[in-house]
């Protein structure tokens, strides 16, 4: 099976189209697309980070709230409409023959990516547990207790031991221990409001803060990886587009800005330590540059790049399916489930009303991004 698939991809004569739709028109607009999309991508991804750090451009909290959940909807719609559908279209092209046509490979690759990503996350959190134990921030029983619902037994035992010895403690010590055990909610991907301070060093709160950082870091890198893969092919497709170039150009300007907004708002919520202070800027810059560079490369090979060839269809289809699997997992598990169900952001008075507003904003983001799929 594998040998036949290899022969079909790399050995068999290419019977698909060996040219592209580039017609030489709108050359000035094609050049301008490099810089316009550079600016819009940069604005989308850098602005949330800048506004969260510098008071002179800081917006009201509700603006950041809208950007955050609107971006979540954009990312989820990108996976369904802008990645999986093109992947299926490419891998089911009529000019392809052999094993690739005998199975819905776009969906299979997406499914395998999703399960592989989940396996990698399990392994990564095992490494995080070991690292926390090495830093002296383990929960005391040698286990990380990673659960979406939290390891409440650890906190309960801590409360019981505190009550037994409370007569021998002064008020300040009691206050510190109460602070350490006040939040039994899940820490796996918790977007809570706790921050590290000297009073809670070496306590479960310190562990939670560290675990939260590692979890968010893993999510950001996975999300960035999936989005950048997608951006490469978007840029090349725009450069070699034919009659539909103008409409594709307009749509991709908004597409890249909205997608950057979703990525940038996630990068902005991470509490980056001083040793990693350049990381968010590097991540934003990588996204900002990917599509413009891809457009420039596409313009350079505009006469020779065959987007309809066998290799191009298989390459684009496979990578789009992989990116779709990444964004499926990140969008539904991390951005929807954890943000809405397991975080502390919607707890307390008026929490449900705030959750409904977030859900409404996310639906708008998904709806607008899905609408853009009509043209791109």
Automatic annotation (TrEMBL):
Keyword annotations: Ion transport, Membrane, Transmembrane, Transmembrane helix, Transport
GO CC terms of this entry: plasma membrane
GO biological process: zinc ion import across plasma membrane
Topology of the protein relative to the lipid bilayer: Multi-pass membrane protein
Comp. bias intervals (Acidic residues): 161-170
InterPro entries: ZIP, Zn/Fe_permease_fun/pln
Listed transmembrane segments: 27-50, 62-85, 105-128, 217-240, 281-301, 321-344, 356-375
GO molecular function: low-affinity zinc ion transmembrane transporter activity
Biased amino acid composition, Basic and acidic residues: 148-160
Superkingdom, natural source: Eukaryota
Region (Disordered): 144-175
Subcellular location: Membrane
Family in the record: Belongs to the ZIP transporter (TC 2.A.5) family.
Protein name: Low affinity zinc transporter
Native source organism of the sequence: Suhomyces tanzawaensis NRRL Y-17324
């Amino acid at each position: 099976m594998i040998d036949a698939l290899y022969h079909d991809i790399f050995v068999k004569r290419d019977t698909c189209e060996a040219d592209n739709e580039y017609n030489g028109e709108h050359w000035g607009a094609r050049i301008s697309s490099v810089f316009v999309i550079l600016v819009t991508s940069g604005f989308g991804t850098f602005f949330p980070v800048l506004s969260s750090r510098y008071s002179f451009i800081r917006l009201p909290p509700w603006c950041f709230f809208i950007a955050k959940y609107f971006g979540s909807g954009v990312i989820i719609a990108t996976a369904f409409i802008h990645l999986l559908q093109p992947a299926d279209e490419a891998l089911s092209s009529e000019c392809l023959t052999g094993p690739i046509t005998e199975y819905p490979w776009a969906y299979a690759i997406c499914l395998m990516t999703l399960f592989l990503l989940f396996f990698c996350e399990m392994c990564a959190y095992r490494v995080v547990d070991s690292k926390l134990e090495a830093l002296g921030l383990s929960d005391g029983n040698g286990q990380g207790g990673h659960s979406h619902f939290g390891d409440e037994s650890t906190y309960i035992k801590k409360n019981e031991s505190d009550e037994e010895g409370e007569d021998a403690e002064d008020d300040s010590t009691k206050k510190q221990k109460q602070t350490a055990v006040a939040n039994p909610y899940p820490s796996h991907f918790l977007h809570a409001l706790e921050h590290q301070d000297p009073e809670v060093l070496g306590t479960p709160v310190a562990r939670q803060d560290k675990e939260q950082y590692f979890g968010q870091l893993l999510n950001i890198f996975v999300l960035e990886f999936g989005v950048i893969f997608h951006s490469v092919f978007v840029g090349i497709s725009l450069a070699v587009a034919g009659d539909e170039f103008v409409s594709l150009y307009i749509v991709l300007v908004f597409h890249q800005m909205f997608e950057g907004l979703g990525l940038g708002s996630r990068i902005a919520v991470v509490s980056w330590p001083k040793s990693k202070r350049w990381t968010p800027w590097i991540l934003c810059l990588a996204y900002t540059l990917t599509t413009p560079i891809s457009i420039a490369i596409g313009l350079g090979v505009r006469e020779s790049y065959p987007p309809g060839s066998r290799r191009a269809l298989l390459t684009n289809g496979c990578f789009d399916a992989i990116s779709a699997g990444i964004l499926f997992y990140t969008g539904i598990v991390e951005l929807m489930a954890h943000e809405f169900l397991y975080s502390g952001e919607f707890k307390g008075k008026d929490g449900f009303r705030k959750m409904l507003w977030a859900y409404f904003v996310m639906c708008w983001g998904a709806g607008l991004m899905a609408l853009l799929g009509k043209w791109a």
